[in-house]
Amino acid sequence: MCPSFNKKHIVTNRAFSLSHTLLCLATSVSFSSTHCFIYQKLCCIITCMHKMMVVEKERSIEERLLQLKNQNDDSECRITACVILSTFIAVCGSFSFGVSLGYTSGAEIGIMKDLDLSIAQFSAFASLSTLGAAIGALFSGKMAIILGRRKTMWVSDLLCIIGWFSIAFAKDVMWLNFGRISSGIGLGLISYVVPVYIAEISPKHVRGTFTFTNQLLQNSGLAMVYFSGNFLNWRILALLGALPCFIQVIGLFFVPESPRWLAKVGSDKELENSLLRLRGGNADISREASDIEVMTKMVENDSKSSFCDLFQRKYRYTLVVGIGLMLIQQFSGSSAVLSYASTILRKAGFSVTIGSTLLGLFMIPKAMIGVILVDKWGRRPLLLTSVSGMCITSMLIGVAFTLQKMQLLPELTPVFTFICVTLYIGTYAIGLGGLPWVIMSEIFPMNIKVTAGSIVTLVSWSSSSIVTYAFNFLLEWSTQGTFYVFGAVGGLALLFIWLLVPETKGLSLEEIQASLIREPDRINQS
Predict the structure, then answer these.
(1) Where are its TM segments located (predicted)?
(2) 310-324 burial string, b = 16+ CB within 10 Å, else e?
(3) In angstroms, rounded to a whole number, what is the distance separating the alpha carbons of residues 234 and 515?
């Protein structure tokens, strides 16, 4: 008997015609044993050809599918002018954030002299910004989900503009404090909504870089205050703080809403339009839109957002990471050093004018390091490097003030203190300054992002208010002891980051959130 053909094979028309001809011959001709042997060999050859054709066809299908996937990936990874513009407009609020953070350092002497404030009154004025930001943080998440990211930024701009103008034209301490609280509430909204908005519009392979520009613009605001505070009146500095808010108010008319928020509220058509603007008019956004919608529906079906949801076992890990990073950021002394840099230099015996000018020139370049490295090194290495540097420099500042108290090396301790303060601010900027906000914007799923984001932001600003208010009194207690405490907090922070903080580099928001909810241990080991 002649071998039969497997009907499961997929054949081309030519192969089918050839096999059909051979079958016809088999049925119409009597074969000798030699002929049958030759015929069997021919059939075996054709069968091998069939298999090769099937494999080739399957490979071709796989290649086309892979090409389609890569096209979708390319669309998701495309950096368009709209993404750049949207990020720039969003971080204009961060510039005002930086001005507010460093304002007390540049305006301390002028305000205390013109309005005849005591140290306690000025310390209260400095801390009212962070207190106001804590109030803003309570409403930031809910406002961002009800109004959307863009409208929330508009509200924050209005509050900041009112606040800065109140400070600029203040005639007494009441208007000064009112303006500080008003701008602080606006900053509380900005600190949450800006990193969240940027993370939600950015391509995943550069999301860290784009979100870190939030820190870059904060440092630009700080640089402006440190540099300009030497020769500009404190009222003019306040007006400069309001300028980026006006730019943002206008610019927000020309940028799209967050696609994730549009998916959350069920605006499918607007979601597609937003993605097309962000990824380019000819981009294939079907896969990304589908991923966003599926993940949003999954977490919404899983549970409704409420305060109690945060304490579900699957969310505890992300909440601990978010709150822990914010506590580390503040109790390591960052807000105090940035707000009172001039006071520290004055106590060290270093020229405030020279020191503030050099710090201002240093601010932007050192922030650029973090922007460049965040998506190359990853979040964990940068955080560990940053906290290590802050821990070491805090201890060294404490040593410098100890030597000063003992009246040892009086010529060297002022310069040494300035160098250590500069390195402290530099190491803070490349990691701990911006990465807690980057990670906060990445790890919380949409169904708890409102509540969790608000709590994390509240913790950040509340702890910042405590540190800012207490810093002057801590310096009166013990200058060197204050920095030893900051160094000890940095040591504990290293342990926390090493054991708990996940790496999120190169993952989409949906991948990060699904992995942290289901398998936090595996993510932590990466």
Answers:
(1) 79-99, 119-140, 181-198, 234-255, 319-342, 348-374, 381-403, 415-438, 450-471, 483-501
(2) beeeebebbbebbbb
(3) 49
CB 338 within 8 A of CB 103: no
Q: How far apart are CA 184 and CA 182, in angstroms?
A: 5
145 close to 452: Cβ distance less than 8 angstroms: no
pLDDT digits (tens, 9 = 90+) for 33-68: 444 445 454 555 545 444 444 434 334 433 433 343
Q: How far apart are CA 273 and CA 384, in angstroms?
A: 40
Rounded Cα gap, residues 202 and 198, in angstroms = 6
Domains, the chain, ordered by start: 80-255 (1.20.1250.20), 307-525 (1.20.1250.20)
User: What pTM was computed for the model?
Assistant: 0.67
What is the distance between the alpha carbons of residues 124 and 187, in angstroms, rounded to a whole number?
A: 17
Q: Is the pLDDT of residue 399 over 90?
A: yes
Burial label for 218, CB within 10 Å (0-12, 13-18, 19+), is: buried
Query: Residues 237-276: pLDDT tens digits?
Result: 999 999 999 999 999 999 999 988 888 887 778 888 888 8
In this structure, what DSSP letter does residue 32 have? P
Average pLDDT on 71-91 reads 76
